[in-house]
Automatic annotation (TrEMBL):
Transmembrane region(s): none
Name of the protein described by the UniProt record: ABC transporter ATP-binding protein
Keywords: ATP-binding, Nucleotide-binding, Transport
Domain ABC transporter as annotated: residue spans: 7-238
Recorded superkingdom: Bacteria
Species lineage: Bacteria, Pseudomonadati, Pseudomonadota, Alphaproteobacteria, Hyphomicrobiales
Family: Belongs to the ABC transporter superfamily.
Length: 279
């Protein structure tokens, strides 16, 4: 019997009430993610990218459809699912090491093991020399590294990243994209990243999920068959980027997303590098 998908999103619709009217943020979204895969999600503002991330992490509810992690229905937050936001959200009165240690707040490990894990992740993100520093002494890029370390420190099974580099300058952003790719390759953690940056999506993702404007649906999933580390100046990288841009702009020929039939509810895992277009 086949294993369930590592993360399976099936026919998810999410609506909100805004000023006495109903707004559909997501409609009939279905996606399967393989273990260890790096998925990037792009789309216009308001297309439901961050909503989908929060639903997957268990931070939001009230949706139709189903989300399963390792076969179990996602019903709330879990230490198995970490999340990193655009703003690092570090507590200014805590040192870097104590901010990272917050990721272990509910972990059942000894004090010595917590210290070992914090030290290990300080080293992993290049902040070993700043353990005792307070957030106001950090640059924007360093603060975001601390946020990533906090998201990773409890060894989550899936890490969701909501535009983690969106507020950074271009040089710092490119540097941290490379660092995140190295961390992913080393840690083998499944990662799902939301971004507005098509270049970032192609640089990091095994597959790029292109969302349509509200109501948010998956317009196309573009496979990125490029070796790592990736060369942003190569013609093949440019070809993939152009395909994603065409899909975003509605000039690529893709089918209109439709709900997946109920009888296919038990979604089998998709190979990590399979091309797919789901709705």
């Amino acid at each position: 019997m086949s294993k369930p998908a590592h993360l399976a999103i099936h026919n998810v619709t999410r609506q909100f009430s805004v000023d006495s009217r109903t707004v559909t943020a997501l409609q009939y979204v279905s996606l399967t993610v393989a273990e260890g895969e790096f998925i990037t999600i792009v789309g216009a503002s308001g297309c439901g990218k961050s909503t989908l991330l929060r639903l997957g992490a268990g931070l939001d509810a009230g949706h139709e459809g189903e989300i399963r992690h390792r076969g179990d229905v996602v019903q709330g937050p879990s230490l198995d699912r970490g999340i990193v936001f655009q703003e690092p959200r570090l507590f200014p009165w805590l040192t870097v090491e104590r901010n990272i240690a917050l990721g272990l707040e509910n972990a059942t490990v000894s004090k010595a093991e917590k210290k070992r894990l914090v030290d290990e992740h300080l080293e992993l993100v290049g902040l070993a020399g700043f353990a005792k520093a307070y957030p106001h002494r950090l640059s924007g890029g360093m603060a975001q590294r601390a946020g990533i370390a906090r998201g990773l420190v409890n060894r989550p099974d899936v890490l969701f990243l909501d535009e983690p580099f969106g507020a950074l300058d271009a040089i710092t952003k490119a540097h941290l994209q490379g660092e995140l790719q190295s961390i992913w390759a080393k840690e083998k953690i499944t990662m799902i990243l939301v971004t507005h940056d098509v270049d970032e999506a192609v640089f990091l993702g095994d597959r790029v999920v292109v969302m349509s404007p509200r109501p948010g649906r998956i317009r196309e999933i573009v496979q990125v068959n490029l070796p790592r580390p990736r060369d942003r100046t190569s013609s093949t990288f440019g070809d993939v980027r152009a395909r994603v841009l065409q899909s975003l702009n509605g000039t690529a020929h893709v089918r209109d997303p439709q709900p997946v039939p109920t009888e296919t509810k038990s979604v089998l895992p998709r190979p990590a590098h399979a091309i797919a277009a789901v709705g």
